[in-house]
Amino acid sequence: MNSVLEETKFLIKKYHISANKNLGQNFLVDDEAVNHILESAHITKNDLVIEIGPGLGTLTARLLEKAHKVIAIELDDKMITILQDRFHFYDNFELIHQDVLKVDLKQKIDENISAVSSVKIVANLPYYITTPIIMKLLEERLPIDSITVMVQKEVADRLTAVPGKKNTGAITYCVSYYCEASEVILVPNTSFIPSPEVNSEVIHLEVRKAPPVLVSNETFFFKVIQASFMQRRKTLLNGLSNNGIASKELLKKMLEDLQLDENIRGESLDLNQFAKISNYLSK
Ligand code: SAM
Hints:
The chain is of the alpha/beta class. About 40% of the residues lie in helices and about 20% in strands. It contains 12 helices and 9 strands. The protein has helices at about 5-15, 30-40, 60-65, 75-85, 105-110, 130-140, 155-160, 170-180, 220-230, 235-240, 250-255, 270-280, and strands spanning about 25-30, 45-50, 70-75, 95, 120-125, 145-150, 180-185, 190-195, 200-205. The strands form 2 sheets. A 7-stranded mixed sheet has the order 4-3-2-5-6-9-7. Strands 1-8 form a two-stranded antiparallel sheet. The site of S-adenosylmethionine has 24 residues, from strand 1, helix 3 and strand 3.
């Protein structure tokens, strides 16, 4: 097979493509990065793969050879034409021309689940909507087994951070509640056409069968986490009281009962401590 660089240059020329920056179009042209994505996703003939933002079809072509079925979701009309031309003769290919955030993924998975043993998400994500996509995949409690995606390096750091340690944000806690996260490979900005300003990283999220901590009210648990990260420089006490989670009086008593320092910040808490806080306050 041609290298992905040659393949991409050929398609760009043939279809007169100029990348649409507003849609986060940075086409991956690095064989090694492509191979790392495919290897870390562990695709088999028993898998349904959902690819978000297939673009010119670089990953799609390889996924179609490995998976039972590939559902590719793409927003851009021009990409849709190319993808139809390239893959219409594959009977394991389904193309959805829609904004991924509006697709009913649960329904799509339900339609296909009886024919497969697992569902995997694979993508070089459009960076401008990385967080909403990851949140959608996790919060909708979809029956997916793993998420293997290329994201901007800074976002990768946040998604794979250890709660309570460096680089955390509210999404770190969400990811580590639902998944085991690992970093796969750093990808320099020169691995894309056009080159984005930032470097990237492939990450792999293995969806957990059960959460690692006991939470009595999940919605409230995530509300508490969000509230404590809204004003990063504030203490947990101020963050939670300013965002209407509980009164200062109750929060002070809680910190005392849970043996936490009154000046502690949300970012230094681990998942278990947040679970205890949310269980305490939702009693
Ligand atoms: N997979 C290709 C690759 O690796 O070269 C393209 C990846 S490019 C970073 C992101 C892709 O996501 C583009 O094809 C873009 O058109 C598509 N995209 C952007 N916003 C989207 C959305 N809301 N829903 C679905 N696809 C979207």
